């Protein structure tokens, strides 16, 4: 069972999201919060697997909340759920360590798939957000590609294999099956990769992998 904490200051929005999540028997909403501070408190009390955070909330907004969650509950996956798709929100959310970014106007199936993905250790971006990220990466691409390639040289060959599959969206369990490793070994590799790359989370590591050209031939599945 995937335990989810839902944080949004609008009661109707929470009810709608809760209704979407209720169709999945593997997802349980264990708590709801109306602001960022309450979300932090409830996350510490209920230890959810995934926190869905709205960006604009009173007292403490979602951007501040995700930064605090990364500090006090680093093992909890955080997905930003918002109506706002502007580039600055996306960049700030991912920079603070969010594991995913989904739009409230997206397909409900994206929400369910995203929760399962981050609960399994992968990352998730709605298609619209992914297009914005790719577009943003295109600006100054040559400089970033050179920097990414240099950072990737610090990885071992096996770590580069793991990073390529991570960037393709595979969870630790699926990477383990693909590379014929135990999942614990993959987790150790991922921790080492994040440390060597100076990445805060899997999303940032995946971006570096794409910039370094590591993802060619790494197809999800299996």
UniProtKB/TrEMBL annotation:
Gene3D superfamilies: 3.40.50.2300. SUPFAM superfamilies: C-terminal effector domain of the bipartite response regulators, CheY-like. Signal peptide: none annotated. SMART domains: HTH_LUXR, REC. This is DNA-binding NarL/FixJ family response regulator. Residues 3-119 form the Response regulatory domain. PROSITE patterns: HTH_LUXR_1, HTH_LUXR_2, RESPONSE_REGULATORY. It comes from the Bacteria. Residues 148-213 form the HTH luxR-type domain. Keywords: DNA-binding, Phosphoprotein, Transcription, Transcription regulation. The modification 4-aspartylphosphate is found at residue 54. One of its GO terms (molecular function) is DNA binding. InterPro entries: CheY-like_superfamily (IPR011006), NreC/VraR/RcsB-like_REC (IPR058245), Sig_transdc_resp-reg_C-effctor (IPR016032), Sig_transdc_resp-reg_receiver (IPR001789), Tscrpt_reg_LuxR_C (IPR000792), WalR-like (IPR039420). One of its GO terms (biological process) is phosphorelay signal transduction system. Pfam families: GerE, Response_reg.
């Amino acid at each position: 069972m995937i335990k989810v904490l839902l944080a949004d200051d609008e009661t109707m929005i929470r009810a709608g999201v809760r209704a979407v999540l209720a169709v999945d028997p593997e997802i349980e909403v264990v708590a709801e919060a109306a602001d960022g501070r309450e979300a932090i408190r409830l996350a510490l009390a209920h230890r959810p697997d995934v926190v869905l955070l709205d960006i604009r909330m009173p007292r403490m907004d979602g951007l501040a909340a995700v930064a605090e969650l990364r500090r006090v509950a680093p093992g909890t996956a955080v997905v930003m759920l918002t109506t706002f798709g502007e580039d600055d929100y996306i960049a700030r959310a991912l920079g603070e360590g969010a594991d995913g970014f989904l739009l409230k106007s997206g397909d409900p199936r994206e929400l369910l798939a995203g929760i399962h993905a981050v609960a399994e250790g992968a990352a998730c971006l709605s298609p619209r957000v992914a297009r914005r990220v790719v577009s943003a990466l295109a600006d100054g691409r040559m400089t970033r590609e050179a920097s990414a390639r240099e950072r990737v040289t610090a990885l071992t060959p096996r770590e580069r294999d793991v990073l390529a599959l991570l960037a393709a969206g595979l969870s630790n369990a699926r990477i383990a099956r693909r590379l014929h490793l135990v999942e614990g070994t993959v987790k150790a590799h991922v921790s080492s990769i994040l440390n060597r790359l100076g990445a805060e989370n899997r999303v940032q590591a995946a971006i570096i992998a794409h910039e370094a050209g590591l993802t060619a031939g790494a197809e999800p599945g299996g």
